[in-house]
Amino acid sequence: MIWPQKVKDRIKTGTDREIVHSYPYRSAAPSSLWVDLAEDAKQEICLAGYTNYFFFTSVPAFTETLRRKIDSGCRVRFLLGNPEGEVTRQREAIEDTALTVSTRIRITLEHLDRLGSLNGLETRFSAPEDAVNHVSLSVFRFDDDALVTPHLARLVGHDSPLLHLRRQGDGGMFDRFRDHAEELWDRAVPM
Q: If DSSP codes are grouped into helix, strand and coil, which group holds residue 45?
């Protein structure tokens, strides 16, 4: 037997190859992961979390990183929930935290305002009819890497699980989550 069963069981095949790592909590992912993915992105960064605020509070010099990325020709997109939307209000009641969903969105908007009007930076609010789909799944894409958080019922994002995916071919998990975020983006409301 050339490949014993124990070796075969450890080799990733098919769509499993796209799962780089899984974390039981988004907050369990090392901060260096977020930094490295943002720094390594060359073509596109698409941040389709409902609030995206933690990038500015947890990733060192994130605003400067975005500015450098945009200046080098990298497309940067933010898909946010509407801070005045009904789904935002519902989610605030569910989470019942001092740092409300609308406040977290406004933190992101404040940081984006500091970037100013840069060619290559795009920001949209998810369409009202898509907000419930947006708030339940965050997709953060850096070229062919994605960090995906399926939000659990009553938990805030940092307490929900995280998958690190790397695209290996057509039709895998990476593409499915990328396509979900793109569909939300296409119907979103430009700011």
A: strand
